[in-house]
Design goal:
five-stranded antiparallel β-sheet; 0% helix
Length: 224
């Protein structure tokens, strides 16, 4: 799970898709063993897809423009569930073992195949990315965390958190990592945050709710 901030919707010359996350399985770059979360143009905006290599497993229902979005992908037995901002948007089944057996790199964030043709370029920001193993953190709709993730957020077992990164003042900042994080290309840090100011949560019975949250609607001029 993690947060992504998408730049403007695709326009002329924009990449056809961008990789938010990729896990290389036992066979590096094999279409059968890669697990990817990608962002692709859709209806004048962007939609989130989950792919097994080049094979599409799921596509999100929400068309996204700019702003922070929480994305979670869980696996329970052979069932994959995709959540966007805490709402389950898609479900799929796969028996593929995505556990990497070695080699480098294995986990890629904001990854692109080639800058020469914009293949797979992710346009945006990433914050508080976490990989948890041996437990499905989310199995139904949930309230998106309002504070930076820790190794025990959402009641997870700390020893099951294998990666918690993109959460500090450098592009390679991390709380937990199984290996060295390397920045490729020219990523930059940002002070933008997906989290609201704590002082804003002063409404509701427990004084932990914002007074209002605004979403957005994108039409295409002819249908709803």
């Amino acid at each position: 799970e993690g947060w992504m901030y998408l730049d403007d919707a695709p326009g002329t010359g924009a990449p056809s898709y961008g990789r938010f996350f990729q896990l290389d399985g036992p066979t590096l770059n094999s279409a059968d063993t890669n697990l990817q979360i990608t962002v692709q143009p859709q209806a004048g905006a962007k939609a989130i897809y989950v792919q097994q290599g080049s094979n599409q497993l799921m596509s999100g229902l929400t068309y996204l423009r700019t702003g922070w979005v929480h994305v979670a992908l869980t696996r329970q037995s052979n069932t994959l569930r995709m959540y966007i901002n805490g709402i389950q948007e898609a479900i799929a089944s796969t028996a593929q073992d995505f556990n990497p057996n070695g080699g480098s790199p294995r986990v890629r964030l904001g990854y692109c195949d080639s800058t020469s043709n914009n293949n797979g370029v992710f346009e945006g920001k990433i914050s508080n990315f976490r990989i948890t193993t041996n437990e499905a953190v989310y199995t139904s709709a949930f309230k998106v965390p309002t504070e930076p993730l820790t190794t025990t957020s959402q009641g997870v077992t700390a020893s099951n958190v294998k990666l918690l990164c993109c959460n500090g003042s450098s592009t390679t900042s991390s709380t937990v990592t199984p290996g060295t994080i390397t920045a490729a290309g020219s990523p930059a840090t940002s002070t933008d945050s997906p989290f609201d100011e704590p002082a804003g949560f002063v409404f509701g019975d427990a004084e932990d709710q914002n007074v209002i949250k605004c979403g957005s609607y994108v039409g295409n001029g002819s249908t709803t």
